[in-house]
Design brief:
Length: 190
């Protein structure tokens, strides 16, 4: 095994991948279609009570400015079959193009909050802005969950999205996408 001493920046930093992709949706008042979408792999559930979810976004991203205005936002989770769309959303900037028009996206809208949603997700959250936390070269945008959308067919009786029901989109880094193997087993709690 090779050792890399760490200075200010790592040469490689994909050791904790793969990660589940969360597609952020946020209103952009400067675009006619008013919605922008950006995939974020650095995402996590942060609290159960209150229900909080976070996404890390670089200040270099167009969505950063929109989120920093304390706007409500959505996050959606897609299956592997949507990998090309998610890659296209991540490979372009809403600063340069209107992604809704460019990709012919049909935008849905939240029930609890005015947030854009893309159809085809197996789950999505509507999030009210909660906090913004600087974390190095990214900021963590924390939202309080105000509504949850679920495709019931994707979840087992425990509420878990299992690979045999939905091959969740995983990101390995550098535009490499995949999905979990269908073999799973529930381990008995010790």
């Amino acid at each position: 095994m090779r050792v890399q001493r760490v200075g200010a920046k790592l040469r490689r930093y994909f050791h904790y991948y793969p990660g589940t992709v969360a597609v952020i949706g946020v209103l952009d008042p400067e675009k006619e279609s008013r919605a922008n979408f950006m995939p974020a792999v650095w995402n996590a559930g942060l609290s159960f009570a209150p229900p909080l979810f976070g996404v890390a976004v670089s200040p270099k991203r167009h969505s950063y400015r929109l989120l920093a205005e304390r706007r409500p936002f959505s996050v959606s989770f897609f299956s592997f079959e949507h990998a090309e769309l998610v890659a296209a959303l991540g490979g372009t900037s809403g600063r340069e193009i209107d992604k809704v028009k460019a990709f012919g996206l049909e935008v849905g809208w939240g029930e609890a909050l005015e947030v854009p949603l893309l159809p085809g997700a197996f789950a999505a959250y509507e999030l009210e802005f909660w906090n913004q936390v600087p974390t190095g070269d990214h900021d963590l945008f924390v939202g309080r969950v105000r509504a949850v959308w679920e495709d019931e067919a994707a979840f087992d009786e425990e509420g878990v999205p299992t690979p045999d029901r939905v091959p969740a989109l995983l990101y390995y880094g550098r535009f490499l996408y995949g999905h979990p193997a269908p073999e799973t087993r529930r381990i008995k709690k010790p």
